[in-house]
Amino acid sequence: MVRAHLVLGAGLVTVTGIILGCGEGAVAPVSAPAAATSRKFDELEAPRYAAAPQPATQAANDAVAASAALATEGVPAPAPASPADSSVAALSVQSGREESRVDLGRGPGEGGDQFASIAENEFLATRDTPLSTFSIDVDTASYAKTRSYLLEHHQLPPPDAVRIEELINYFDYAYAGPTDEHPFAVHLETAECPWQADHRLVRVGIQGKRLSGERPVSNLVFLIDVSGSMNEPNKLPLVQRSLSLLVRQLGENDRVAIVVYAGAAGLVLPPTSGTEQNTILAAVENLRAGGSTNGGQGIHLAYATARQNFIRHGTNRVLLCTDGDFNVGVTSTGELVRLAAEQAKAGIYLSILGFGYGNHNDAMLEELSNKANGNYAFIDSDAEARKVLVEQMQGTLVTIAKDVKLQVEFNPATVAAYRLIGYENRRLADRDFNDDTKDAGDIGAGHSVTALYELVPASVDSPLGKSEVDPLKYQETGDRSQGPGASRQTADSRLPTPDSRLTEAAASGELLTLKLRYQPPAGGQSTLLTFPLKDSGQRFGSASSDMQFASAVASFGMLLRNSKFKGQSSYAAVLETAAAARGEVKHELRAEFLKLVEAAKRLSGEPIGMAPLWLPTQRTALVCGTVEASLAGQFTARLRNWWSSLPIGHVFLLGILAGVAAAIGALVVGVRLARWQAQWASQHVVTEKIARSKLAPRS
């Protein structure tokens, strides 16, 4: 008995050490180097300083350059699964019950759902490109589309359907609103990067002011696609229910007109006061689908109607409801985009609500909204319609600032390289930041915008500037045409010359300076805001719950895209982090996000998590058990999140100690059981002897 419990104790030592010494947070293949992120530094040159390095320091600088190149060596990413493979995976988890599939499509003009190709942002060397400039984005269509693929159709979404910034911006964060004359407040935070521990993560958060009084007087035109392609339950009927929710929020300061289009366009309802809700609702309910789709003609008529009823200093907006399947008349995306951009400059904005699957032209609708000073949402359910048109109605209809641009200047003394996560189709030329004629995104009342940068810390300088941009803060520059590498940039840019020097600001320890420009809703001269940022040095586990959750969403997006920058991400790690950062019960959308991650985890066939484990001689990977964070509860998730933040050596040592303790406990219990069994046997023998003596015949 004792021997058996000794064997059990030895087994407990091994099992406990494995379970506690492992974590789900890393799933890098064993063959990957320590820096498992693939980054593009092939074209980077050795660090260039203002003066040639002295002989005594040349070797040290060469060593720095060599270590930076080693740390950023690329790792080939596995090939993404084909749509056919995704469908097989989807069907295999349905217990033999075949599910309906959505035609993923191949791109604009090729049938099926159409998505524009996304080329992920690469890492950029700060010494070559110190400025990162982009337009804000408040669209959320990609998240709703991704959700419908995962939860409704049991398929992984096409990678190009996943715009990571739209996934992040789908959620509300606890950003404080503005307290001054500006229409929004800016929040900055730094922490350890969860998918690449030697990198840093910077979060830029913008919170728009919320309206305290009545909304401005509004001139709204509902532009509704009633073509044959909309004759499906999740299209026109959902459009009607969605608009009915919005109509019930309108009042005496609102006017609504309804334009429809199929083979031709027509005015169904002339401008009508928001108080006549029954009239508006009846016009919406009486719509029927049929015919081809002359979307271009409908947009022209909608804009003409909006111009005829233009309200100065009010809200003038066309609300387009469609699947984007324009197949008659003006079908050119370029022509429609130019029309929307012209009307936006005239004060008439365009908001887009996308509907349906199978022929949803996301590529066209997303580009159209980008140029129309509007926003783009995808409505896949009544709940999403309520979120966009009721809970976020002010942000959907009321613009508080237009042409909002962000420009980040990185300090080459503290940042070797950086990467903007998402916003690929929102990038701007650096010189456009100070050009008020260049269009950018608008922000609505109460909207928030979040952007994440992944940084590679280093002390390499050589920043890049442009002649049309503000003077660089951390670097003195000369005329770029006289500097090295002139052929790689535009002729009107600036680059540090051999005689350039770092400025005093470079020695401040700042990571970066964020600059933000915005114009008032009616247009005019832009306003500049500036915010420097130093690295807090905090671990990821010490970051705010909002930053942890946003990073989990970003990691989820990279996994869905099979990004080469996903590092040590895994769906299990995303579940753990998101569950711990879920926050209060009121965050129902965050709870729903956990379901999306669980669905993607099943569909991807992700194996049980692997975690790196440091042993004296080599780096090994152990297969560990997983506990679904959504079932374990927030407390367990937070405890495991803290555990995973410990150094791996300490974790394994604590695991072994816990295993030894468990073994000792098992041994003690075994000894006690053995004694109890011996006593029981002894008592049983005595009892049996007494019984036999009583039964024996007397002589």
Q: What about the largest sheet?
A: 6 strands, mixed
Poorly predicted parts = 20-103, 106-110, 459-468, 478-500, 609-634
Q: Tell me roughly what share of residues is in helical segments.
A: 25-40%
Find the structural class using helix and strand composition.
alpha+beta
**What is the assigned CATH homologous superfamily of the domain at 218-397?**
von Willebrand factor, type A domain
Distance between the termini: 43 Å
Strand order of the largest sheet: 7-6-5-8-9-10
Overall average pLDDT: 75
Quaternary structure: single chain
What do we call the CATH topology of the domain at 218-397? Rossmann fold
Total of helices? 17
Shape: globular
In CATH's first tier, which class of the domain at 218-397 applies? Alpha Beta
Report the count of strand segments.
20
Overall description:
By secondary structure, this protein is α+β, with helices and mostly antiparallel strands. It has a domain at 218-397: von Willebrand factor, type A domain (Rossmann fold), CATH 3.40.50. Helices cover 35% and strands 19% of the residues. The chain contains 17 helices and 20 strands. Strands 7-6-5-8-9-10 form a six-stranded mixed β-sheet, sandwiched between helices. A five-stranded antiparallel β-sheet has the order 1-12-14-4-3. Strands 2, 11, 13, 17 and 18 form a five-stranded antiparallel β-sheet that branches. Residues 20-103, 106-110, 459-468, 478-500 and 609-634 have low confidence and may be disordered.
